[in-house]
Design a protein that fits this description.
mainly alpha, 13 helices, globular, Na+/H+ antiporter like fold, transport, Auxin efflux carrier, membrane, Na+/solute_symporter_sf, transmembrane
Amino acid sequence: MDIFSFSVAERIFQTIFPLLAIVCVGYFYARKRPTDMAVANKINIDIFTPALIFSVMSAESFDLQNYYPLALAAGLIVILSGVLIWPLCRLIGVKPKTFLPPMMFTNSGNLGIPLIVLAFGEAALPAAVVLFLVENLLHFTLGLYILDNKTKLLNLLKMPMIIATIAGIFWSYSHFTLPSALQTFIDMLGQIAIPLMLFALGVRMTSIDFTHWKIGLWGAILAPASGLILALLLQPFFKLEPAHFGYLLIFAALPPAVLNYMVSERYNQEPHLVAAIVLIGNIGSLLFIPVVLAFVL
């Protein structure tokens, strides 16, 4: 039992440490040299992340049909978590438009992808990308509609990540192969995305505001708790294979996405509160994620 516990603890450390180390590099660098990541984040969203998406989806080993149940279960977790938490907003004393998006749309990109890959190996990358795509697609459709019901969803088709997704789906079904030089070029661009996401998260952590710590603490508890409860309730219906259920549990336990703050700022939806929810939620994940990893590994 002691050997097993040590082995699990070692795997959790090997999974968490590289992620936390890169986040810390971003945090301490930005503390010493104030850093504006706006341009880098835009480039990551417009170029590196779409390259990662297409790189994974165009790979010969990627078969989209294998991930339909996982994608559907993830989509239900995103939507139903909002339904589950919505009645609590009045109790907490926060507007649903402010609180629900961070609870629903989690850090599936700059934390979820590297976390799943480090925990389960490179073979888990396609599943991690699928989960990221589900969360992002819902964020830029349902999430924007929650904040503004006049949002034009057709504008989605102009987003590089959506274009890369459509192109990747077409490529995965067509069974075409890219010339090796072009594939290497796209792969190398995509490999920049994850470390840059983690570094940017560290930089963002320098702006932590504990003024609204109570709402942030509620968010840090409710986001993973609602996700995990729903994942456990959905498993008997979907009967996901053990590995896919492990991916789903990690996805369900993720903290609020940093993107929630950027979107709330754009729509002027109490960004100061959303910042507290996002940042305290990500700090809280240092407690939740190891527990989930201990269960799934």
